[in-house]
Amino acid sequence: MVKGRKLLGLPVINLAGEELGRIEDLIWEGGNLQLKGVLVSPARLFTGPRFLELREIQTCGPDALTVNKDQALSTGLPEGSLSWADFRGKRVLDTTGRELGILEDVEIEWPSGRVVKLEVSQGLVEDILNGRKLLDISGSTVTWGSDVVLLPAGVM
Prior knowledge:
Layout: E1 2-3, H1 4-7, E2 11-14, E3 19-29, E4 34-42, E5 50-53, E6 57-60, E7 65-67, E8 73-74, E9 81-83, E10 91-94, E11 99-109, E12 114-121, H2 124-130, E13 133-136, E14 143-144, E15 148-151
């Protein structure tokens, strides 16, 4: 498993040893927050960010992602996709209306791209004293709303 924030800034390397760019953002399939791919800021000047689909990634290491070919990068994002910025910082509530915290990160099952845990902050003091909470959401129905992330009661 890999944390979402650990992916940001990693270089994308092809098997010829060339850096194609660095991960700028995570791109999610709308509705179920399944990782669809990553947005890569280019290593070369005068080209815009490119999309790298999850299935095109050869390996996800601690220091880089590798791809088989340069053509794995495409322009434009899949229709209905969302960026990590659309979810980070959202309130996380359960179905009883209890606020669990603020969404800070996710743990992603690799290579499926499925989100299995949410990292939530309950405020600076609580984070310092007890650390952030990891909520296991595997097998749970999660509602990724436009305003809040809604979890079933009893997840925390």
